[in-house]
TrEMBL record:
This is POP1 protein. GO terms for biological process: tRNA 5'-leader removal. Residues 4-98 form the Pop1 N-terminal domain. GO terms for cellular component: nucleolar ribonuclease P complex; ribonuclease MRP complex. It comes from the Eukaryota. InterPro entries: Pop1, Pop1_N.
Amino acid sequence: KKQAEKAVHQKKEQSKTKCRKARRRHINLVAEFNRRQRKNIWLETHIWHAKRFHMVKKWGYCLGNSPTEKSYRACYRAMTKHCLLQDLSYYCCLELAGKENELLKQLGRICSIDTGLTFQEACYLSGRFEGSLNLYRADRYPEDMLGPVTFIWRPRDGSEHRQLWIWVHPALKQDILRELKAIFQCSEPEEICITEPVTTSVQEEKQMDVVMSPGKKRKKEDKEGEKVVPVKKIIGDGTRDPFQSYSLISQTTGIAISDRSMEILRYRLIGPLSHSVLTETLKAASVQTV
């Protein structure tokens, strides 16, 4: 009797799940891909890492922590003789745009020349090199350190308007963004661009009607009767609302702060063949002047 009840119970549970053929359909794979990002954001290399690494959930992301097989020798060989690539796209990118003098004046309040090179060094201002330093609360050095950051200037184009990209660890982003907002006196713009919310698989099932016809496969259609074209969606980043484009602007200084997290990807190449890999992968674009 117990075995019979157990068999009936298992049969009911199995009836709720789809067969493997149904799960492997393209539209169901994409719906599952979008559904699994509701809690933890995936990097664009997640599919590759998930098959080869033990994944951990940190700072709102799902990241590869350690390889599933003993590949330490292969990684060491790649770093010493070939090229090793790391995905650092989970680092948050903050973009500052405005007049160069105003940017340097206010940024000087949250760093100090006593710790090393700062934003105003000539080698960094040219945009040829990436710099790194420690940020502090405004006028509080050597107390109240916020944390380390890396930055790079956009090369000069002959105008006073400059762009600066600051790369911040996701655990430090909110504190540093709050301090930048304070020193530049930025406030949220009146119009905020809100993108279309990402629908989960349950919501997609409700919005789509399943059309059954004898002798043909099922095809999902939307309310207007058009065929559904599933699209993979990368949802924002793990530190802000994924449905809003975060942008701040100052009415007094004219400085604009934009959150470019997950919009600008970041990779680290290690090894003697890194330069050759970049030259073979990237092609210079032709500059067209109007």
